Amino acid sequence: LQQHAEAREAAPRRSARRVTLTAEELATRGAVSGEQLFFLLQSIPVEQVHKFSEEIGVLFASEVAQPNPHTPTLMCILHLHRKQAALLRPGLVDPGRLRGLVLRPSADLDLRLGAVLALGTPVAGLQIPAEASTVEALEELVSKSPQAVVRAAAAIALLGLTKYTHTAAHLEIQRCLLESTRAENQNALRMIGEELPDMVSDGYLLYLLLCASAAGRLAAIHVCAHLPPGRRSLMLVDPLVQQLSSRARAAAATQALALFPAPAVVPAL
């Protein structure tokens, strides 16, 4: 235990030294492994990421060009890219490289989805309105992708870029919600619930929790777990408590219920 405690205490000092070294090494893909890069990126505090923006951008370009890119590293960069936008700072990845990844069908699905959402995240320093090529690429996905979750991600991105004025994107979001009881659309429902929770009404969540298939109910629980504080309607407590009787859904329901006020949850148990 003593050795474990000493190792944990020393870890931040080691990671801090490596973060400093990262600024010098990130542009050289061969300097460290994908796993090491992933660890290094996670070690950089979000508020300090902008200091390494150039190196991280070069790393993304280099990693994407690899025959077998390290997906967790790229996903981490996309996550940091969106975090910088939330802090009103310039992004880390060039939109052209994001478009290239978005339009690459052979890429890992989660990576493509991450790139789509990053492409639709307005960041400081980029032209407003968005480049026509970016909008066209997203519109093509909305109209032609055979995967509901990809269409949903592209629609979410278009709404972000157009300040919620894109008609086709709104229609696709509603279509995904109306067809969310279909198995292939449940991942789309999860994504909409995470990114645009206000698009999913309390009444619709109530319906899914009580009437949908087992997978549909699990997707609805996932949405409930991502509702912002102002959207946690007490009408959802009883339906969520009912999910505790299912071994497959109990853990997710417990996580969602933990976000609701205890005085409302305890009497329903």
Structure notes:
The protein is mainly alpha-helical and 269 residues long. Helix 5 runs antiparallel to helix 6 and helix 10 (186-195) packs parallel to helix 12. The chain has helices at 2-25, 34-43, 53-64, 71-86, 95-102, 109-119, 132-144, 148-161, 167-178, 186-195, 202-211, 214-224, 237-242, 250-257, 262-265. The model is unreliable at 1-9 and 11-23 (pLDDT under 50). It has 15 helices and no strands. It is globular. It starts with a helix and ends with a helix. The longest helix is centred in the N-terminal third of the chain and has 24 residues, at 2-25.
Show the helix and strand layout.
Elements: H1 2-25, H2 34-43, H3 53-64, H4 71-86, H5 95-102, H6 109-119, H7 132-144, H8 148-161, H9 167-178, H10 186-195, H11 202-211, H12 214-224, H13 237-242, H14 250-257, H15 262-265
Helix pairs in contact: 1-2, 2-4, 4-6, 5-6, 6-8, 7-8, 8-9, 8-10, 10-12, 11-12, 12-14
Question: Top keywords for this entry?
Answer:
269 residues; mainly alpha; globular; disordered N terminus
C-alpha geometry = globular
Number of strands: 0
Approximately how much helix is present in the residues?
55-70%
Low-confidence stretches: 1-9, 11-23
**Rounded Rg:** 21 Å
N to C succession of SSEs: HHHHHHHHHHHHHHH
Instruction: Please outline the major beta sheet.
Output: none
Beginning-to-end CA distance, first to last residue: 39 Å
Number of helices: 15
Mean of pLDDT: 82
Share of β-strand residues: under 5%
Provide the structure class.
mainly alpha
